[in-house]
Each structure stands twice: as structure tokens, then as C-alpha cells.
Design a protein that fits this description.
The chain is mainly beta and 202 residues long. The protein has no helices and 15 strands. The chain starts with 25 loop residues before the first strand and ends with a strand.
């Protein structure tokens, strides 16, 4: 176990080797992140969920690594887990992932690529999960719900202002879209493989 805020505010900490040991099963809230202005100096890329820790909350807020490889042991990206990571460009998500909680990747304005975008297994995307105030570079073809018939819930402002997404496909599941969930996106096409989503106001 690495407790809450264990290495929080360690601004000179540049690397953790290995990142993370398989013996670690829990990472506490903000254990490596900065919770106020300023950034953690950790720059070595993250690999988590491959036999190591699978439970973590707000852990990496404001960290400086460029890539995150999230393994099949991870079922949920907790709230604010990767919020405001200024150098995070690429994230690999597992096909076991069920939930991306509120602001999971919010304000990580360098984030360009998510593979896959998104896994078929995802059934819930929280409010402002990828919100970047129009400054983000997240691009590509967004596929929500995949080929499954899962019920998908997408929170308010989940992808709002991710204006470089080129297309949106809603899979065969039943979708409930929160308010402004894809606001200020100008995709070339939107496709519905199943029922038309239930859409919130605004």
C-alpha cells in the first residue's frame, strides 16, 4: 500500500523504478500528484494494472509523464486520476475497463491519443471526463459502446470542447448523454448503430 498523499508535493521527484512494483496493491489519493498549483516532476512513463496496483484515486494529478499504459487489472479510472497532466500525450486503455469517472483526464491538454478510443467494455463516462476548455488536442474517431449492447451513460461535458474529434459513432447499446456531452465538437459524421441516444438539455 502507498498511502494518501505519500509523495504529494515532492516536486523534485523525477522517476519511480519500477513504476509500479507488482507487490503494490493500492495507491492512495494524490499519492504522487500535486493537489494545488505546480506539477510533480515524475517523467518516466506509467505502466499500471499488470499484476501491480489496480485501485487508485486522484493518484497522478499534475504528473509530467508522457504516456500511460493501463493494464487489464484496472476496471475504473477514478475521479481526477489523470487530471491536469501537462505532458500526457498517449494513453492505452484495457478492454476490461468499465468506468471513467468525473474529470478522469480533464484539463490534460496535451492528450492526443487514446487506444482504443474507447474500449467496448466502457459503460460509464463521468462528467468532464475529457474536458479541456477548448485547449485540448485529443483527436480521432470516437467509438462509444462498441459492438456490445451495454447501457452506456455519458456525463455532462464529458467530451465538451474536444474539438479535434473527427467522427462519433454510438454503438448498439442504449446511450444516455448528459448535458453538453459533445458540445463544441464539429465531427465530419455522427453514426448511430443502435437506438438514438437519450439526450440531456443544452
Amino acid at each position: 500500500t502507498i498511502a494518501n498523499q505519500a509523495f504529494c508535493f515532492c516536486g523534485a521527484l523525477e522517476s519511480v523504478i519500477p513504476f509500479f512494483p507488482e507487490s503494490v496493491t493500492y495507491l492512495g489519493a494524490s499519492s504522487f500528484g500535486q493537489t494545488t498549483a505546480g506539477y510533480s516532476a515524475i517523467t518516466n512513463n506509467l505502466r499500471v494494472g499488470y499484476g501491480g496496483p489496480t485501485t487508485f484515486a486522484s493518484t497522478f494529478m499534475n504528473c509530467k509523464f508522457a504516456e500511460a499504459d493501463i493494464g487489464p487489472g484496472v476496471k475504473s479510472i477514478p475521479s481526477k486520476c489523470f487530471q491536469s497532466c501537462p505532458n500526457l500525450k498517449k494513453v492505452k486503455l484495457p478492454n476490461t475497463l468499465k468506468t471513467i469517472e468525473s474529470q478522469g483526464f480533464a484539463y490534460s491538454v496535451a492528450l492526443e491519443t487514446i487506444e482504443p478510443f474507447l474500449p467496448d467494455s466502457v459503460t460509464s463516462i463521468g462528467a468532464k471526463a475529457f474536458y479541456a476548455e477548448g485547449k485540448g488536442v485529443l483527436a480521432g474517431k470516437l467509438f462509444i459502446g462498441g459492438t456490445t449492447t451495454n447501457n452506456i451513460t455519458i456525463g455532462d461535458d464529458a467530451f465538451s470542447q474536444c474539438n479535434k474529434i473527427t467522427s462519433i459513432t454510438y454503438g448498439k447499446g442504449t446511450h444516455t448523454l448528459g448535458k453538453r456531452s459533445v458540445r463544441y465538437i464539429d465531427p465530419q459524421d455522427i453514426r448511430f448503430l443502435g437506438d438514438i441516444p437519450t439526450v440531456g438539455s443544452e
